[in-house]
Amino acid sequence: MWSEIPDALPGLLAGPLAVAGAAKALVPSGRLAWPFERGILRSPWGPRLTGAAETTLAVALVALPAGPAAAIALAAYTALAGIAYRLRGRRCVCFGAARLASVGRVHVGANAGAAGLALIALAASGGAGGGAGMGAAVRIGAAVASAVATVAIVLLVDRRAGGGSDAPPPEESPSAEPCEEVITGVRIYLTEGCPSCRALGRLLETVGPDRRAAVTTTLVGRGAALPAPLTGMGFPCAVGTGASGAPVCDPAEGIGAVKALVDRVAVRAEPCPADAR
């Protein structure tokens, strides 16, 4: 069984890369809260290039001998752990438009753990030029199994985040669930370096002054926890408040949903002039 480890582990690590790459390549870039806005990785080409790179890495982990495959997996997941650390607090687009928790310690830890498995596979193979063990059959089987498991987990988390419904994410159709009270204010939470946050700011400049006055914004540091009931959400996110200052609606996440929440703020009607009565 020990002899199968050098082949099985790279295959297991190939599955999530294949799913992540396919998700980024197939989902329209307009539906992704893509974190890069400059350079070659900016949208709309950034998601496609990243998806193609992840898919290529997955193929390499399956096609190459055990030693080189483990070395590539170690380098890839070490880099992904570093990227996750840099992007902590941003909305997760690891698997396309799936509604996952914002990037945090779990993402960093998962990638670091995968790098650890790759290191074990590299050691078991006898080095970067190690033997092929039982070969591609084991790696393909492991890759298919891990890809299926990854898809199942992502769909489960996405469904729970969407309240168990099949409705599209907030960017496609902002929620209009009834509130306990009239919305008199909106608390918006942003983070530095967030392209979606900047886009929301420009969008809010188009709303009326009464509604803009009802909006308060809070800048959250990277890695800092959001207050309840926004814990685990990505940026930008917001919650509507009533006259008492307490939340009266389900929180909103994403540009479209936050803007829709601001549009629902109750605006006091102007009194009619006496001579118009």
Alpha-beta classification: alpha+beta
Largest sheet entry: 4 strands, mixed
Mean pLDDT: 80
**Overall outline:** elongated
Radius of gyration, Cα only, in angstroms? Answer: 23 Å
Strand order of the largest sheet: 2-1-3-4
Percent strand equals 5-15%
How far apart lie the N and C ends? 90 Å
Notes on the structure:
The structure is a single chain. The chain is α+β, with helices and mostly antiparallel strands. The protein contains eight helices and four strands. A four-stranded mixed sheet has the order 2-1-3-4. α1 (5-26) packs across α3 (66-86), α1 packs antiparallel against α4 and α1 crosses α5 (136-161). The longest helix has 26 residues, at 136-161. The radius of gyration is 23 Å and the shape is elongated. Residues 128-133 and 163-176 have low confidence and may be disordered.
In brief, what are we looking at here?
The protein is of the alpha+beta class and 277 residues long. The protein has helices at 5-26, 45-63, 66-86, 105-125, 136-161, 195-204, 209-213, 255-263, and strands at residues 185-191, 215-220, 237-241, 252-253.
List keywords for this structure.
four-stranded mixed beta sheet; alpha+beta; single chain; 277 residues
Write the layout of secondary structure elements.
Blueprint: H1 5-26, H2 45-63, H3 66-86, H4 105-125, H5 136-161, E1 185-191, H6 195-204, H7 209-213, E2 215-220, E3 237-241, E4 252-253, H8 255-263
Parallel strand pairs: 1-2
Antiparallel strand pairs: 1-3, 3-4
Helix pairs in contact: 1-2, 1-3, 1-4, 1-5, 2-3, 2-5, 3-4, 6-8
